Amino acid sequence: MNKALRKAVIAGNWKMNKNRAEAKALIEELKPLVADASCDVVICVPFTNLETALAATEGSNIKVGAENCHFEKSGAFTGEISADMLTEMGVEYVIIGHSERRQYFGETDVTVNKRTKAAIEAGLNVILCVGEMLEDRENGITAELVALQTKIALKDVARDQLKQVIIAYEPVWAIGTGKTATAEQANEVCAIIRSVIAEMYDQAAADAMTIQYGGSMNAKNAEELVAQPDVDGGLIGGAALKAQDFSVIVKAASNG
User: Relative to the CA of 211, which of 70, 127, 128, 232 has its CA 20 to 30 Å away?
Assistant: First the structure.
């Protein structure tokens, strides 16, 4: 694959961490460290930190994302946030289908598809998460499962809308466990996802698709992972909460 056809993206997923003061401090520390990045840099923060993050990143090369959104524009959905609410604020990215949303909050492939379409229609860039559980890998069904998740998530998404989609491959067994897929394992599944995009759309669409790795990428392993031909950056968890570590990952992706 020709990586010149697509740009690497390093996105931090802060999860349920940082109050507003802490968020501002982390962003101010991060800004000079990533100012020269040639990859795209995104921070996805809790809803309560969005306004703080948007203000703190203004004029910088850091883009702001949310960690989820609902598929309806409005209505009786207590506790939910619509995609239109995010775009009205100036948010540019949103994570959809993270394994923690699937595991703890009942997200399904079908609701992931609905949220993805709603986010795209609202003008957001979607970081779409797919990935297998440990038992799926041990049973040898990783390829089939990830292909199915990708196909359902992108159902009725038009080819010209793919420019608003980044896919993050997240082996669930490697999130927050300290375990990491080897660079070869990560690349193998990212290549499988790319082949699914080629099957659903065409090879040009597959070549242009940014596919991240999202399983415990950190400052120590980032360089090896982003050097893989089908790994176009990362969706970063714990390391995104440390400006220095996150900047090392950004640098690796900028050099890759």
Answer: 70
